[in-house]
Amino acid sequence: MASVAHPEGAGLPPAPAAHPRGSVTGTRRRWAVLFLLPALVLLGALVVYPIGYSLWRSLYDADGSGFVGLGNYVDVFSDRSTLTAVRNTAIWMAVAPAVVTALGLVFAVLTERVRWGTAFKLIVFMPMAISMLAAGIIFRLVYEQDPSQGAANAVAKSIHDTFVSSSVYPNARPNVAASDLRASGGGSFTTAGPVRAGTPALLPLVGIAPDRLPGSPRDARAAAGPGVTGTVWLDFRRGGGGTKGRVDPGEKALKGVTVEAVRDGRTVASATTAADGTFTLPAAADGARLRLPGANFAAPYNGIDWLGPTLVTPAIIGSYVWMWAGFAMVLIAAGLAGVDRNLLEAARVDGANEWQVFRRVTVPLLAPVLMVVLVTLMINVMKVFDLVYIIAPQPSQDDANVLALQLFLSSFGGGGNYGVGSAIGVILLVLVLPVMYVNIRRLRRERRL
């Protein structure tokens, strides 16, 4: 049978017609632009227009009626409050993102090694559910100066009192009119004349309310005996009466007061008052002067001034770290889950210890994730406003000032200068741009890889 020749391609389906100027899906560009138009309009209204208006408004005076050119920028960099805000913003950018990222890395690595790692991650991440305003109120109470209210100072006072004995009778002072005790430096009091054996020394003190004495004080008793003795007591009793400088019935003893015998500037003997206020010194004290050391009367330790001018910025950064450490931990833990465990095991087989594995293998493999967290936090700290505004008390607010807060204060917080406020907003934008540029370059590089 003779074969019939078929033309080339016969029996095959026809090739689809090419879509002119279309994408791989065949969608024309004008349809893509049409679908993107709502998002572009929204982006322009919420981003492009505010940026352009702020730039334009920064060239005009406070009420916008007069063109001042770059005058607002000159005012920004010549104002002490704004310069403080620039300095503090730089501190925030240098410290807060690095600390949060480091803590997140440590938490992410350690929680992989414990059974209750999920519960720990949940606890650390929980502060992210709290608003900045609520966190500011919480830490304003945490940093309260009074140890009975502020948790931070309650802990600091407990630790201090564990290692350093607190004073017995703070703010007590001698009854100058009834004794020869005089101030002798360092909060101490020393008698003007020497003490003699057989002649009891009377050391009356005042400045303490009888109901403020610690414990259950006993009535004072006049010392007696052949040696060097004396009495320290509260020379006051309710209802008045009695003779100043003499131990009267009903006057309370001061227990636990340290008494030193001093000769030629050197302590030769010391004793502590008993429950009835009396003390007895050895024979070496005969002819010496008596001194009540300042440790007996020092004010009690009330903790650290967290919100003072010196520590207010580190204290607020601490609250920020508390909030955002969970964010860093979750992102880094997600990156750590994708790390090839064979590389870690190979390093251990080659003799590397855990620290070397962490530093030479884990951290380099997590470098892209760490960079994402670091850049995100750097952009975030430039906008910090709520924490500083809520936590810093009014006397310390100037010392804790940041650019976002200064923008608010210049424009809406009583300043009423929208020109300067707009100039600060433009400066913040300029500061964010390099960080965004680095992030975009990193994303493009990763896409090419």
UniProtKB/TrEMBL annotation:
A single Gene Ontology CC term: plasma membrane
CDD domains: TM_PBP2
Domain ABC transmembrane type-1: 86-439
UniProt keyword terms in alphabetical order: Cell membrane, Membrane, Transmembrane, Transmembrane helix, Transport
Spans annotated as Disordered: 1-22
Pfam families: BPD_transp_1
Low complexity biased stretches: 1-12
GO biological process: carbohydrate metabolic process; transmembrane transport
Highest taxon of source: Bacteria
Membrane spanning stretches: 31-51, 90-110, 122-143, 321-340, 361-379, 418-440
Subcellular location: Cell membrane
Topology versus the membrane: Multi-pass membrane protein
Family classification: Belongs to the binding-protein-dependent transport system permease family.
Official protein name in the record: ABC transporter permease
